Please model this.
Amino acid sequence: MDEPEHLERSGHLDVTDGHAIWWAEFVADGPALRGGADIPVLCLHGGPGGATSVGDLRTAFAGTGRRLIVFDQRGCGRSRPNPSQDSFDRCLAGNTTNDLVDDAARVLASLGVNRVDLYGRSWGSTLAVLVAARFPDLIRRAIFASIFLGSWDIDWVDRGKFATMRPHVWEYWQSVVPADHRSDPVAHLHATVLDESAEESRRLEALQALVAGESAIGAASIGPIETEMVDIAGHLVYSHYMMERCFEPGIVEAAATLSVPASILHGAHDCLCPPSAAVELANAIPTDLLSLYWYEGSHALSVDGARWLRHLVSNV
Model:
Protein backbone atom coordinates (compact mmCIF):
# COMPACT_ATOMS: atom_id res chain seq x y z
CA MET A 1 0.00 0.00 0.00
CA ASP A 2 1.16 3.52 -0.75
CA GLU A 3 1.53 5.94 2.15
CA PRO A 4 -1.21 8.62 2.30
CA GLU A 5 1.35 11.44 2.45
CA HIS A 6 2.34 10.67 -1.14
CA LEU A 7 -1.17 11.64 -2.28
CA GLU A 8 -2.57 15.14 -2.77
CA ARG A 9 -5.86 14.02 -1.28
CA SER A 10 -7.74 10.80 -0.64
CA GLY A 11 -10.79 9.49 1.16
CA HIS A 12 -13.72 7.10 1.10
CA LEU A 13 -16.96 7.57 -0.84
CA ASP A 14 -20.13 5.82 0.33
CA VAL A 15 -21.83 4.24 -2.68
CA THR A 16 -24.46 1.47 -2.69
CA ASP A 17 -24.98 -1.84 -0.86
CA GLY A 18 -22.85 -0.79 2.10
CA HIS A 19 -19.66 -0.18 0.09
CA ALA A 20 -17.27 2.71 0.72
CA ILE A 21 -14.89 3.27 -2.19
CA TRP A 22 -11.35 4.45 -1.45
CA TRP A 23 -10.24 7.14 -3.90
CA ALA A 24 -7.15 9.29 -4.31
CA GLU A 25 -5.75 12.08 -6.45
CA PHE A 26 -2.11 12.86 -7.17
CA VAL A 27 0.12 14.39 -9.85
CA ALA A 28 2.72 12.48 -11.84
CA ASP A 29 6.21 13.94 -12.04
CA GLY A 30 6.89 16.32 -14.91
CA PRO A 31 5.99 19.77 -16.19
CA ALA A 32 2.36 20.83 -16.30
CA LEU A 33 0.78 19.83 -19.59
CA ARG A 34 -0.28 22.76 -21.74
CA GLY A 35 -3.85 22.49 -22.95
CA GLY A 36 -4.59 19.45 -20.79
CA ALA A 37 -3.39 20.26 -17.30
CA ASP A 38 -6.93 20.93 -16.11
CA ILE A 39 -8.20 17.55 -17.36
CA PRO A 40 -7.16 14.66 -15.11
CA VAL A 41 -6.68 11.01 -16.06
CA LEU A 42 -9.01 8.49 -14.44
CA CYS A 43 -7.02 5.25 -14.00
CA LEU A 44 -8.84 1.92 -13.52
CA HIS A 45 -6.84 -0.88 -11.91
CA GLY A 46 -6.64 -4.50 -12.98
CA GLY A 47 -7.96 -7.68 -11.43
CA PRO A 48 -10.77 -8.39 -10.87
CA GLY A 49 -9.86 -8.18 -7.23
CA GLY A 50 -6.70 -6.13 -7.69
CA ALA A 51 -5.95 -2.76 -6.16
CA THR A 52 -4.46 0.58 -7.13
CA SER A 53 -0.66 0.77 -7.18
CA VAL A 54 0.15 4.45 -6.93
CA GLY A 55 3.85 3.64 -7.32
CA ASP A 56 3.32 1.76 -10.60
CA LEU A 57 1.21 4.60 -11.95
CA ARG A 58 3.81 7.19 -10.96
CA THR A 59 6.36 5.17 -12.92
CA ALA A 60 4.10 4.65 -15.95
CA PHE A 61 3.14 8.34 -16.14
CA ALA A 62 6.56 9.72 -15.10
CA GLY A 63 7.46 12.95 -16.88
CA THR A 64 3.91 13.70 -18.04
CA GLY A 65 2.83 16.03 -15.23
CA ARG A 66 -0.70 14.65 -15.48
CA ARG A 67 -3.14 14.71 -12.58
CA LEU A 68 -4.33 11.16 -11.86
CA ILE A 69 -7.56 10.04 -10.16
CA VAL A 70 -7.73 6.47 -8.88
CA PHE A 71 -10.07 4.31 -6.80
CA ASP A 72 -10.03 0.80 -5.42
CA GLN A 73 -12.93 -1.27 -6.71
CA ARG A 74 -15.52 -2.85 -4.42
CA GLY A 75 -14.02 -5.38 -2.02
CA CYS A 76 -10.49 -4.43 -3.09
CA GLY A 77 -7.47 -2.67 -1.62
CA ARG A 78 -8.45 0.08 0.77
CA SER A 79 -12.16 0.06 -0.04
CA ARG A 80 -14.62 -1.20 2.56
CA PRO A 81 -15.87 -3.82 3.29
CA ASN A 82 -12.76 -5.85 2.56
CA PRO A 83 -12.40 -9.67 2.59
CA SER A 84 -9.41 -9.46 4.91
CA GLN A 85 -11.56 -7.89 7.65
CA ASP A 86 -15.23 -8.45 6.79
CA SER A 87 -17.48 -11.33 5.76
CA PHE A 88 -17.27 -12.38 2.16
CA ASP A 89 -21.05 -12.01 1.80
CA ARG A 90 -20.74 -8.30 2.67
CA CYS A 91 -17.94 -7.86 0.13
CA LEU A 92 -19.95 -9.55 -2.64
CA ALA A 93 -23.22 -7.69 -2.05
CA GLY A 94 -23.71 -5.37 -5.02
CA ASN A 95 -20.30 -6.31 -6.40
CA THR A 96 -20.82 -6.70 -10.15
CA THR A 97 -19.27 -5.24 -13.27
CA ASN A 98 -22.15 -2.77 -13.65
CA ASP A 99 -21.64 -1.55 -10.09
CA LEU A 100 -17.94 -0.87 -10.75
CA VAL A 101 -18.73 1.05 -13.94
CA ASP A 102 -21.24 3.25 -12.12
CA ASP A 103 -18.72 3.80 -9.29
CA ALA A 104 -16.34 5.46 -11.74
CA ALA A 105 -18.94 8.13 -12.49
CA ARG A 106 -19.81 8.44 -8.79
CA VAL A 107 -16.18 9.11 -7.85
CA LEU A 108 -15.84 11.82 -10.50
CA ALA A 109 -19.12 13.45 -9.45
CA SER A 110 -18.02 13.51 -5.81
CA LEU A 111 -14.81 15.31 -6.82
CA GLY A 112 -16.65 17.80 -9.03
CA VAL A 113 -14.84 16.51 -12.14
CA ASN A 114 -16.91 16.52 -15.33
CA ARG A 115 -14.27 15.65 -17.95
CA VAL A 116 -11.36 13.18 -17.89
CA ASP A 117 -9.02 11.20 -20.04
CA LEU A 118 -9.54 7.51 -19.26
CA TYR A 119 -6.91 4.77 -18.81
CA GLY A 120 -7.47 1.12 -17.95
CA ARG A 121 -5.13 -1.88 -18.19
CA SER A 122 -6.05 -5.59 -18.24
CA TRP A 123 -9.35 -5.91 -16.30
CA GLY A 124 -9.19 -2.13 -16.08
CA SER A 125 -9.45 -2.02 -19.88
CA THR A 126 -12.76 -3.93 -19.67
CA LEU A 127 -14.15 -1.38 -17.25
CA ALA A 128 -12.71 1.52 -19.25
CA VAL A 129 -14.53 0.45 -22.42
CA LEU A 130 -17.79 0.14 -20.50
CA VAL A 131 -17.31 3.49 -18.74
CA ALA A 132 -16.56 5.24 -22.04
CA ALA A 133 -19.62 3.69 -23.66
CA ARG A 134 -21.99 4.47 -20.75
CA PHE A 135 -20.70 7.96 -19.89
CA PRO A 136 -19.33 9.47 -23.14
CA ASP A 137 -19.91 13.03 -21.93
CA LEU A 138 -17.38 12.44 -19.12
CA ILE A 139 -14.61 11.15 -21.39
CA ARG A 140 -12.41 13.23 -23.68
CA ARG A 141 -10.33 10.28 -24.88
CA ALA A 142 -9.66 6.71 -23.73
CA ILE A 143 -6.60 4.45 -23.60
CA PHE A 144 -7.15 0.70 -23.28
CA ALA A 145 -4.06 -1.41 -22.49
CA SER A 146 -3.45 -5.17 -22.22
CA ILE A 147 -6.97 -5.91 -23.39
CA PHE A 148 -9.13 -8.25 -21.30
CA LEU A 149 -12.44 -9.15 -22.95
CA GLY A 150 -14.25 -10.73 -20.02
CA SER A 151 -15.79 -14.06 -21.03
CA TRP A 152 -13.61 -14.23 -24.14
CA ASP A 153 -10.41 -14.17 -22.10
CA ILE A 154 -11.87 -16.37 -19.36
CA ASP A 155 -12.35 -19.08 -21.98
CA TRP A 156 -8.81 -18.49 -23.22
CA VAL A 157 -7.42 -19.35 -19.78
CA ASP A 158 -10.04 -21.50 -18.06
CA ARG A 159 -10.75 -23.72 -21.06
CA GLY A 160 -7.04 -24.18 -21.79
CA LYS A 161 -7.01 -22.44 -25.17
CA PHE A 162 -3.67 -20.89 -24.17
CA ALA A 163 -2.13 -24.38 -23.98
CA THR A 164 -0.82 -24.18 -27.53
CA MET A 165 1.58 -21.50 -26.21
CA ARG A 166 2.08 -22.63 -22.58
CA PRO A 167 1.17 -26.35 -22.52
CA HIS A 168 3.11 -26.97 -19.30
CA VAL A 169 0.72 -24.71 -17.37
CA TRP A 170 -2.38 -26.65 -18.41
CA GLU A 171 -0.65 -29.90 -17.52
CA TYR A 172 0.30 -28.43 -14.15
CA TRP A 173 -3.29 -27.39 -13.38
CA GLN A 174 -4.55 -30.82 -14.37
CA SER A 175 -2.01 -32.42 -12.04
CA VAL A 176 -3.18 -30.56 -8.93
CA VAL A 177 -6.92 -31.37 -9.13
CA PRO A 178 -8.80 -34.66 -8.68
CA ALA A 179 -9.03 -36.86 -11.78
CA ASP A 180 -12.73 -36.13 -12.32
CA HIS A 181 -12.01 -32.39 -12.63
CA ARG A 182 -9.09 -32.55 -15.06
CA SER A 183 -11.21 -31.51 -18.04
CA ASP A 184 -12.01 -28.22 -16.25
CA PRO A 185 -9.28 -27.74 -13.62
CA VAL A 186 -9.45 -23.95 -13.30
CA ALA A 187 -13.15 -23.89 -12.44
CA HIS A 188 -12.49 -26.48 -9.73
CA LEU A 189 -9.65 -24.41 -8.29
CA HIS A 190 -11.80 -21.24 -8.21
CA ALA A 191 -14.67 -23.15 -6.57
CA THR A 192 -12.29 -24.48 -3.92
CA VAL A 193 -10.99 -20.96 -3.16
CA LEU A 194 -14.57 -19.73 -2.67
CA ASP A 195 -15.65 -22.72 -0.54
CA GLU A 196 -15.67 -21.31 2.98
CA SER A 197 -16.49 -24.76 4.36
CA ALA A 198 -13.24 -26.22 2.96
CA GLU A 199 -10.11 -26.48 5.06
CA GLU A 200 -7.98 -23.35 4.92
CA SER A 201 -5.00 -25.38 3.68
CA ARG A 202 -7.01 -26.72 0.69
CA ARG A 203 -8.20 -23.24 -0.24
CA LEU A 204 -4.67 -21.89 0.02
CA GLU A 205 -3.24 -24.67 -2.14
CA ALA A 206 -5.90 -24.03 -4.80
CA LEU A 207 -5.17 -20.31 -4.77
CA GLN A 208 -1.43 -20.86 -4.98
CA ALA A 209 -1.97 -23.11 -7.99
CA LEU A 210 -4.12 -20.48 -9.73
CA VAL A 211 -1.67 -17.64 -9.09
CA ALA A 212 1.37 -19.73 -10.08
CA GLY A 213 -0.26 -20.88 -13.32
CA GLU A 214 -1.46 -17.45 -14.40
CA SER A 215 1.93 -15.94 -13.58
CA ALA A 216 3.56 -18.55 -15.81
CA ILE A 217 1.12 -17.81 -18.65
CA GLY A 218 1.77 -14.08 -18.39
CA ALA A 219 5.55 -14.39 -18.14
CA ALA A 220 7.68 -13.07 -20.97
CA SER A 221 9.11 -16.54 -21.65
CA ILE A 222 8.45 -20.18 -20.77
CA GLY A 223 9.87 -21.01 -17.37
CA PRO A 224 9.28 -23.14 -14.29
CA ILE A 225 6.02 -22.83 -12.37
CA GLU A 226 6.74 -21.52 -8.91
CA THR A 227 4.22 -21.24 -6.09
CA GLU A 228 4.43 -18.28 -3.76
CA MET A 229 2.90 -17.05 -0.54
CA VAL A 230 -0.47 -15.52 -1.34
CA ASP A 231 -3.36 -14.10 0.67
CA ILE A 232 -6.72 -15.82 0.21
CA ALA A 233 -8.67 -12.71 1.17
CA GLY A 234 -7.01 -10.65 -1.54
CA HIS A 235 -8.07 -13.09 -4.25
CA LEU A 236 -11.62 -14.00 -3.27
CA VAL A 237 -13.11 -11.22 -5.39
CA TYR A 238 -11.11 -12.46 -8.38
CA SER A 239 -12.47 -16.01 -8.09
CA HIS A 240 -15.99 -14.61 -7.60
CA TYR A 241 -15.80 -12.67 -10.87
CA MET A 242 -14.26 -15.60 -12.76
CA MET A 243 -17.00 -17.98 -11.61
CA GLU A 244 -19.62 -15.40 -12.66
CA ARG A 245 -17.82 -14.90 -16.00
CA CYS A 246 -17.39 -11.23 -15.09
CA PHE A 247 -21.18 -10.88 -15.25
CA GLU A 248 -21.03 -11.01 -19.07
CA PRO A 249 -20.22 -7.32 -19.58
CA GLY A 250 -20.56 -7.37 -23.40
CA ILE A 251 -17.37 -5.39 -23.95
CA VAL A 252 -17.22 -5.89 -27.73
CA GLU A 253 -20.81 -4.76 -28.12
CA ALA A 254 -20.10 -1.72 -25.94
CA ALA A 255 -16.99 -0.89 -27.97
CA ALA A 256 -19.08 -0.68 -31.12
CA THR A 257 -21.04 2.20 -29.56
CA LEU A 258 -18.02 4.31 -28.56
CA SER A 259 -18.14 7.95 -29.57
CA VAL A 260 -14.80 9.16 -28.12
CA PRO A 261 -11.27 8.80 -29.54
CA ALA A 262 -9.71 5.55 -28.31
CA SER A 263 -6.22 4.07 -28.34
CA ILE A 264 -5.32 0.43 -27.75
CA LEU A 265 -1.93 -0.59 -26.31
CA HIS A 266 -1.13 -4.30 -26.27
CA GLY A 267 1.94 -6.47 -25.80
CA ALA A 268 2.86 -8.32 -28.98
CA HIS A 269 3.87 -11.39 -26.94
CA ASP A 270 1.07 -11.42 -24.36
CA CYS A 271 -0.01 -15.00 -23.64
CA LEU A 272 -2.35 -14.21 -20.74
CA CYS A 273 -4.52 -11.77 -22.72
CA PRO A 274 -3.54 -12.68 -26.29
CA PRO A 275 -3.05 -10.15 -29.10
CA SER A 276 -6.14 -11.56 -30.80
CA ALA A 277 -8.18 -9.97 -27.97
CA ALA A 278 -6.81 -6.56 -28.93
CA VAL A 279 -7.66 -7.21 -32.57
CA GLU A 280 -11.19 -8.29 -31.60
CA LEU A 281 -11.69 -5.04 -29.69
CA ALA A 282 -10.09 -2.93 -32.40
CA ASN A 283 -12.42 -4.41 -35.03
CA ALA A 284 -15.42 -3.36 -32.94
CA ILE A 285 -14.43 0.28 -32.36
CA PRO A 286 -15.42 2.73 -35.12
CA THR A 287 -12.30 3.08 -37.28
CA ASP A 288 -12.35 6.88 -37.37
CA LEU A 289 -11.92 6.93 -33.57
CA LEU A 290 -9.27 4.22 -33.19
CA SER A 291 -5.48 4.07 -32.99
CA LEU A 292 -3.78 0.73 -32.27
CA TYR A 293 -0.23 0.39 -30.89
CA TRP A 294 1.72 -2.83 -30.36
CA TYR A 295 4.52 -2.73 -27.84
CA GLU A 296 7.42 -5.12 -27.38
CA GLY A 297 6.56 -7.17 -24.32
CA SER A 298 4.09 -9.52 -22.66
CA HIS A 299 1.18 -8.81 -20.31
CA ALA A 300 2.92 -6.37 -18.00
CA LEU A 301 3.36 -2.83 -19.31
CA SER A 302 6.95 -2.97 -20.59
CA VAL A 303 9.35 -0.07 -20.97
CA ASP A 304 8.25 0.18 -24.59
CA GLY A 305 4.58 0.11 -23.58
CA ALA A 306 5.08 2.82 -20.97
CA ARG A 307 6.82 4.95 -23.60
CA TRP A 308 3.76 4.72 -25.84
CA LEU A 309 1.49 5.53 -22.89
CA ARG A 310 3.46 8.64 -22.00
CA HIS A 311 3.39 9.69 -25.64
CA LEU A 312 -0.38 9.40 -25.78
CA VAL A 313 -1.10 11.25 -22.52
CA SER A 314 1.41 14.00 -23.36
CA ASN A 315 -0.07 14.77 -26.78
CA VAL A 316 -3.61 15.94 -26.22
